[in-house]
Amino acid sequence: MNSFWLSLAPVLWLTIIAIPVGILFNAAIVFGLYSIILLGIVIYHIHTLYCLEQWLHHSDLSYATVPDRSGLWGVVFARLARFVRRHDKERLGLNTSLERLQRATSALPEGIVILGDKDQIEWCNSAAERHLGLNLEMDAGQHITRMVRQVRFVAYLDMGDFSKPFLLNQSRLRDVLLSIQIVPYGDREKLLISQDVTRFEKIEIMRRDFVANVSHELRTPLTVIGGFLETLLEENKISGEMEKNALRLMSDQAIRMRRLVEDLLTLSRLENAGNNLTEEQVDVVKLLQGLYQEAQSLSAGRHVISLNLASHAMLLGSEDELRSAFENLISNAVRYTPESGIISLNWVVENGKGLFYVQDSGIGIEPNHIPRLTERFYRVDRSRSRETGGTGLGLAIVKHVLNRHQASMEITSQPGAGSIFRIWFPSNRVLPAETAPVISSSPEHTKQNSAA
Ligand code: ADP
Questions:
Q1: How far does residue 382's CA lie from ligand 1's centre (Å)?
Q2: How confident is the model over 347-374, as a mean pLDDT?
Q3: Of 34, 181, 324, 331, which cross-links 193 as Cys (Cβ 3.0–4.6 Å)?
Q4: Does the model's pTM come out above 0.70?
Q5: 207 and 135 in one domain?
Q6: CATH code of the domain containing 427
Q7: Where among 164, 181, 196 does a domain terminate?
């Protein structure tokens, strides 16, 4: 029999006995007694409920004495007491884990801020308090941009593209440079992670300065050496064939070193954050027409080169930097395309975005090399790069120029079939021109030009 029937049994027995006894003897006395007993039972249950209510009122249930009852109430109290103990144990475990987590995050050198769905501060560790000048007790609930008031940071947060960290110069903390990484999670919450990168930045600046200074110092001696070697070769003052060969070799190497130094200087100029981008209106058509002529002379008739200008749109940016990026892609196409290969230079506007691309039918690139091509000195074939006068810095320069113009590069290539290097410019850098006729400089056109 379960506890329900056990608790009900006395009442049932009482009723079963009271009815015949009441009928046989004095009904008034029997039912009067019956009612008094029932009232006693009701009072007992109400009192037990009151004890339950008093027990539940205790601030710490696990330490309060459980009311001592038998029967169904006894079972209920035993279950509740067990539930409370288990719940307390779990809560204690959770509290311990939370405390441990908080202690661990407090010990982290990185600052961590939990931002709510409206970018309000919900929690932060002590490193974040130090880095961003926060005080959790006072600033909880405040919008993060009220605490980090830099315009560029507000724009970064609004833009919502957190693929790259944001560099925050905290002049308040004696020129501390922070790298801010935002990680969205959950519904619309975010995790803001701040890292002090002042030391790395200092080392990076030292490295950049060192390369720039060495390159600069090498420039003059190399120009002098190259100049003398050229003069000696031109004046034909050396008689022996072996000496002449040695002289030619020395001159070629001096030229190569000068090119390397120039590329290194270009890279350090591009990397210099203080060097702001010149925002000018670049006539892409004119620029490409000039580069097309240069490509013709570099190719010296070994390739079929065409220029397709499907738009007259101009670009907003630095003409020198864009020339250098386009030049590198074009010279690569010429250098890595065997004789009688086909090369095309193209300028189009698609969905408001500017697209410049160079297509060649050259040696192509294996897919595994493509992600690394923009690294400094990364070459697929070192000897081929050297033979054709490469420095291994061309695509690194392209990458830097594109970063400064918020442009991106897409490389598609098939070994043995050729490559396409596409550069996409964002629509805010494209200055639309009035509808202009499509200009195309085909090889025939060039022949006509050169014949004229
Ligand atoms: P390099 O001065 O060696 O050409 P780059 O940085 O310009 O250096 O290019 C890096 C490497 O990418 C090159 O060494 C070459 O292997 C590969 N590469 C670049 N452009 C092309 C192309 N159009 N076709 C085939 N390979 C290319």
A1: 9
A2: 96
A3: 181
A4: no
A5: no
A6: 3.30.565.10
A7: 196
